[in-house]
Specification:
homotetramer, alpha+beta, Urate Oxidase, 2 domains, eight-stranded antiparallel sheet, 39% strand, globular, Uricase (chains A, B, C, D), EC 1.7.3.3 (chains A, B, C, D), purine metabolism (chains A, B, C, D), urate oxidase activity (chains A, B, C, D)
């Protein structure tokens, strides 16, 4: 039976570009990891040995560096829009570009203000410490016609030490879990959210949008009295849609980082929800999308 | 604007189960990492705090262990079929189950045959060394009606030290890459292939099918004179479809593990394709699907 | 030729214990990863099959959990002192205990103060977000007689975008590096520092000591005009010894996280120290100890 | 109180060099990860900003590449001896060089012999698949006078499905572990062994030595009826010393990769040592040295 070439894409992955702005003694930095994936009229590259339609991955890497100079990096999203548009609009065989970006945040190092030692503090304009916490993500796709922008974050680990229950679930012959009326709820948030902007009009203020979406996710996690991690997931996604008009869809992947109460009775001790074992594997994994009515979801399922 | 709950799924991820068969002094072992994802009538779990439709992830974990005893683990695929069918057929609110499995292979430790020391060797029936090399993967999905089985492997690293060229590609203002007429080609293969079996009739011999698909991938990589990694990808996928009737679709993800020729001229030395720097990042990433004509591809794009 | 059993040690590694204090609605948490290594009169355990002198690693794990309840976790160091003393003082064959601890920090999640929305903010007493940034470390060793405490941190990534030079070094036939008069200097700090306290008198205030040592490391990195990473290392270690009387020795491991200036000239662009490639491997690795005169260094070389 | 500079070292870490030999159509490859650490008269580099005694880490990297061409890579150990001697003998301020090497093994890809398809097979002279399994290690230290060579391996995972017991240990108030009379014993072997060769006379046949030491480690693991992992450790080390005259000392680090029997009774099933949960953390960690009498151990304790 004959076979055909299906979906395919290629490009340079994980180009690590750091852009420094030195307009004053107070430097600014942007630290990105950029992955390019191009699709189009590429049958010959796969079938005949002709690379006439192939823009080398090395060139996509060079373009990332050159654009960091030519356009600067205002935000990961805006940088991705520049790149995606360039690859499609300037290479006839390339019909679609998908740019994925990770961004690592840096804080300024502060040293004591000498005029007020141990009270005020002064930032050192060229010294930075990596923020840790979450990694910011962005995915920009362009097909020559319109853009699709999905912002996100990952590795944001949160914990509620109370206000979480889990009971009333299905019991079958393989059930041993005891119902819980006060448990620890911890998860490492991976979130992606799709913007309604598709190329027409001004781009949203991506930096401001990110700050607020992140804040709403944290607040919803903290303020929700939870009967399941699913319920918390829904509260987090809804909170974003209720507050950020530029966002149409939110998808969350929430591993349940189990904290099991240690049985201290063999040692003559009572564990009043004080001592927990933080387990690695296995872990519950809860995934879900919340989107505006009438909008077709675009964020891929992992 | 109102919003709605979209695609969602949940289950226990990464249950590490080891099954030992002790029918003789020659033990057999199966070593799996099993992840369960269930979908269905789960709106209430997200919206109202009722868990009446929720089979706890803890129970899905218990079921993995119990089935390892009740059904044994003939193959990752057959084990996943048991699990997926169970979750959907025995829980009215669960309409779809997806089981993902990683399998780690073990070889037998052999010791010298005492009757012919240093010539023959004798396996120790209860002693094993982990094979390293690739990890085998399987994904089994069941919706109450039919099955979809995707087998695969990852972390299979291969290298051709010659018979690879790359030239004749697009040149633009960002091009600096020099054409190569004899380069090293190395990649870490991630492959997935979809089987035509969907539940009717006997299951394929999964173990035998795996052995042959893996062999064809390796042989195609070794025997293809390559003008691009895309061409090698297509040759690998085609080879499988041409030789294995039970497979309908192959998807490959091939990072180009760049080996750059080191410039030794500053040291008065000539590098005749002998000394290479093995780079980490960035790397080219080539992905593609080959499928039988008329078949709708089912393997998700990463 | 006869052989003998040399240095040996054993214990449970990586016990993940989380301790929650619920004395008010403002909870406190301590999140540790504890590894125990015991040595002593253990020849029989290795040689004869007798475990009469072996305290099982499972018991050392249980002890970690029980002590989290019985003694609480005031600091990683104080907790390690409790554990080390217990193992040696209560098990005749155990002559030495070494406790290694990693501590993960958590910040409180704050939500807008409703009475002053978007101006003030209110912490949620039971909701936390993991701090990211560095991991705090501690090693406590006890031999029945005295204690040795080594505090530390790792994964603290810092960058100076200027005030770093490197020139005037040895040139030989393998030299190609160009001298640099304004380079980016970035490193991921691993630091360990030994305390003079050895068991007599009150323990130092470990939490306060840590906060100040960390601050001095950051300040010295930021304020040092650097001619080599070695010079920066020495400045960081010296700064700690000059300011913290309780510390006798500092050891630093500083990988040079190279940021290479990208050559943009092929694209007709000038790179005024603006666009860098952040490299992974290889990397320079600079290690060194600074200690008080007359003190015998105790921190092991990696 | 005055402070001084103590132990310090520096160099380029993780230079990834691949050497290909193309003397016939049957290519040979060596794939190494080389880390250099130099010590000596380096006070000024740390204290004054003068780099006059500093051989840049970039130059040590270049030397690795140049030596791969000039000397070839016969074995990791012989390559390290070349490098260490060079750095010390050719740079007056450098008094000591320590070279650490990881080696990744590759197998040849074989394809069916066309003249006897599916019976014989034919290797493809330029096609390789990475072996997986263990990583080989070597550490070579030279102080201008003599050499110290420590060979080793890591990530060699082994399992015995029977012939392991653990009982008769200390019981205290924190003991809950039940004695085991037939358990699974699994570990991921890290082994290092020191050679007696110190520079005089011919070097040992490093490749042959490695093959045999590895074999003895595996055989001792498989053939030892074990009452503790300590006992297995001692048997493994002793076996090497009893059989390999060129080795003076063996150090082993053996994490106990716990396989816990799953309790299937709640499901009405009996677990006859058939179904296990492979745990991640915490894990027992057993470390120990066996050395010839009268020899001073040199392998550092982790």
């Amino acid at each position: 039976m004959a076979h055909v070439l299906g979906q395919n894409q290629y490009g340079k992955a994980e180009t690590r570009v750091v852009r420094i702005y030195r307009d004053s003694t107070r430097h600014e930095i942007k630290d990105l990891n950029v992955s390019v994936a191009l699709s189009g009229d590429l049958d010959d590259v796969h079938l005949t040995g002709s690379n006439a339609h192939c823009l080398p991955t090395d060139t996509t890497k060079n373009t990332v560096y050159a654009f960091a100079k030519e356009h600067g990096i205002e935000s990961a999203e805006a940088f991705g829009v520049h790149l995606a548009r360039h690859f499609v609009d300037n290479n006839e065989p390339i019909h679609r570009a998908r740019i994925r970006i990770e961004e690592y945040a840096w804080d300024r190092i502060r040293t004591p203000d000498n005029s007020a030692r141990f009270i005020g503090s002064e930032e050192v304009g060229h010294s930075f410490v990596r923020s840790g916490g979450e990694i910011r993500t962005a995915q920009i796709t362009y097909d020559g016609d319109s853009f699709q922008v999905i912002s996100g974050l990952k590795e944001l680990t949160v914990m509620n030490s109370t206000n979480s229950e889990f009971w009333g679930y299905i019991k079958d012959k393989y059930t041993t879990l005891k119902e819980a009326y006060d448990r620890v709820l911890a998860t490492e948030v991976t979130a992606r959210w799709a913007h309604s902007w598709s190329g027409a009009g001004d781009q949203p203020n991506w930096e401001r949008s990110y700050t607020h979406v992140r804040r709403h996710l944290l607040e919803a996690f903290a303020e929700t009295y939870s009967y399941s991690l699913q319920q918390t997931l829904h509260a987090m996604g809804s909170r974003v849609l209720n507050n950020r008009a530029e966002v149409d869809e939110v998808r969350l992947e929430l591993p349940n980082k189990h904290h099991f109460l240690v049985d201290l009775e063999p040692f003559g001790l009572k564990n009043n929800n004080e001592v927990y074992f933080a387990a690695d594997r296995p872990y519950g994994l809860i995934e879900g999308t919340v989107h505006r009515e009438g909008v077709v979801p675009v964020i891929p399922v992992a």
